[in-house]
Amino acid sequence: SKNTIILGIETSCDDTGCAVIDGKNSLLGESLYSQNAIHIRFGGVNPLVAHELHRENIEKAVAEALNKANKTSNEVDAIAVTTKPGLLVSLQVGVKYARYLSKKYSKPIVPIHHMEAHALVARMYYDLPFPYIVLLISGGHCLLALVKDINDFVLFGKSLDNAPGEVLDKVARRMKLKNISEYSKVSGGRAVEMAAQLSTNPGLFEFTLPLLRHRDCNFSFSGLKDALVRKLIKKEHEHNLKGDEIIPEVNDLCAGIQCAVAEHLAHRTQRALMYCEKNNLISPENRRLVVSGGVACNNFIFESIKFICNNMGYNTYRPPANVCTDNGVMIAWNGLEKVRKQCDIRSELSMQEVDPE
Ligand code: KG4
Ligand code: ZN
């Protein structure tokens, strides 16, 4: 039979990502236009700027992915596009362009849920039969879920306040890590990881773990952020710092917060695994956990989660780093899985289905 070709389009936040994959699970071509460097100057994603830049990049991004794949729009069998959740004005740019291509070349369109795509894309790289457990940790989300099928998820817990990446970005900013040239071009989370590696006293700052007594699988990161700011202010006063000066213990403080985030994630994950065991949700041969989202790139955090998984007889997986962060590959992959299952394939997609949630 004919090889299926899927085009994936992602514009839910600040990255314009496209990819072309085929029915043999091969990535044929991809493109990514990241707005990160621009938004850093605003201290967060600016919706107006995001909208403008997606509009500026969407045509180039699609053309580049198709060119690299050596395919034309007409050779595509279906167009998968993120419809939720995300920034409404960002989502609309991708959906509008997908609708335009769909009409022009009479191609079916497949609506994709951004989180489901994060949770499923590991299946493109590993043999991961359902069910498995997923931990999604990024700048916009934090959740633990059971993945029973491509469109069947059971949520165990989510963050009650900030996402872990959001907190790492904020504390990196507050510690002025961007003023150190090695960190000026990386994300806040990556800067914290690099600084923590240089720590000579990783136990210097102790953090109280959040929600220790809560008998559920939810997360909370805002308390850790506040605790870090208090410790930072105390040190700034002790050293009598002013303006742009950075505390001498900055590496130790990064190690402390990274360790607290890792421990909290590992602790809540352990609860979810115990819950699954108690309720027979995962049989012994299906003990698999996928970690995805931008924060999964952090090796210390990943290893901490892997450690508790190992102890409970689980294997731990994560997609390649550039597929953990927002990208078009995961959208194309989810499109391919839906085409294979013949579910959610549309001849037309209404703009009302675009949902920031
Ligand atoms: O998945 P992603 O690209 O976007 C969404 O938030 O959906 O994740 C970006 C987040 C940022 O907060 C960034 O600081 C964090 O992932 N991140 C990291 C690392 N690399 C990226 N956090 C910790 N350690 C890293 N190495
Ligand atoms: Zn994401």
TrEMBL record:
Location, primary (coarse class): mitochondrion
Domain Gcp-like: residue ranges: 27-333
Superkingdom of the organism of origin: Eukaryota
Transferase in keyword set: yes
Cellular location(s): Mitochondrion
Reactions accelerated catalytically: L-threonylcarbamoyladenylate + adenosine(37) in tRNA = N(6)-L-threonylcarbamoyladenosine(37) in tRNA + AMP + H(+)
Keywords assigned: Acyltransferase, Metal-binding, Mitochondrion, Transferase, tRNA processing
GO process terms (BP): tRNA threonylcarbamoyladenosine modification
Cofactor (UniProt): a divalent metal cation
Assigned EC number: 2.3.1.234
InterPro entries, A to Z: ATPase_NBD, Gcp-like_dom, KAE1/TsaD, TsaD
Cofactor note as given: Binds 1 divalent metal cation per subunit.
GO MF annotations, alphabetized: metal ion binding; tRNA N(6)-L-threonylcarbamoyladenine synthase activity
Listed GO CC annotations: mitochondrion
PANTHER family the UniProt entry points to: TRNA N6-ADENOSINE THREONYLCARBAMOYLTRANSFERASE, TRNA N6-ADENOSINE THREONYLCARBAMOYLTRANSFERASE, MITOCHONDRIAL
Family annotation (HAMAP family): TsaD (MF_01445)
Physiological role: Required for the formation of a threonylcarbamoyl group on adenosine at position 37 (t(6)A37) in mitochondrial tRNAs that read codons beginning with adenine. Probably involved in the transfer of the threonylcarbamoyl moiety of threonylcarbamoyl-AMP (TC-AMP) to the N6 group of A37. Involved in mitochondrial genome maintenance.
Assembly behavior: Homodimer.
UniProt similarity note: Belongs to the KAE1 / TsaD family.
Name recorded for this polypeptide: N(6)-L-threonylcarbamoyladenine synthase
Organism (species): Trichoplusia ni
Gene: LOC113502536
